[in-house]
Amino acid sequence: MQTVCPLLLQVDGALISLPYSPPHGRFSAYRSGRLGVVSADFGLRLTFDWHLRLTLALPSTYSGSVQGLCGDFDGRTEGELLLPGGQPTSDVQEFGEAWMVEGSARCDRDCAPNCPLPPPAAEVGLSGVDRCGVLQSPTGPFRDCLGNVDPEPYHQDCALDVGLRRGHQGALCDALTVYTAACQEAGSTVHPWRNATFCREYRARLAVSGVSPTQEPGVSHSHHLQHRGVR
């Protein structure tokens, strides 16, 4: 099963519209706001926005019994980079490629194995409040969320993405959007941070989708993947 474009899924090679439930009834796929949701009868819940973020939730009974990009779900961050055969690796590129589904036009190896390193933080201003630092600013638009959703991992992701894209504003907009969703899922208020000159393109995209630019859909931040190192 693959997400192809907003509102459609590809199941066994065929494009389907949501909601969808196969004859055997083992899972269902449906929309929740702008999000797509796949829910299986054994407790799995997959949530995605067709663009930036994918969240996988499983019952605790599966702890240590799964593999993939989210790790083995044992509550520890050590030893998460396991290949499909169970062998450990320290190479993130090898790890990502090992789990890549073949035949997807949106997944490729890009610049591998000669990907450029991110530039120094100073080169793209990552520590300033006008860049990724806004995620951690006690007076910024996320000030009411800092105590509920740890901004540090989101700041690290932002720094990597913005750095690799040489300070491109689109990467920053994407990073702030992901943290906004996590904050709203946690019930925190996020103050407006988009305007006519900052992340305006995303405002237009939300308006076309019929969603308020200040009320983006929320998703859990406990296990998330972003389109960055693994493509």
UniProtKB/TrEMBL annotation:
Keyword Glycoprotein attached: yes
Chain intervals for the UniProt region annotation (Disordered): 211-231
Q: Quote a single Gene Ontology cellular component term.
A: extracellular matrix
InterPro entries xref list: Mucin_vWF_Thrombospondin_sf, VWF/SSPO/ZAN-like_Cys-rich_dom, VWF_type-D
Chain intervals with Basic residues compositional bias: 221-231
The answer to keyword Ribosomal protein applying to this record is no
Judging by the UniProt lineage, the source's domain of life is: Eukaryota
Q: Which of UniProt's keywords are assigned here?
A: Disulfide bond, Glycoprotein
> What protein name applies here?
VWFD domain-containing protein
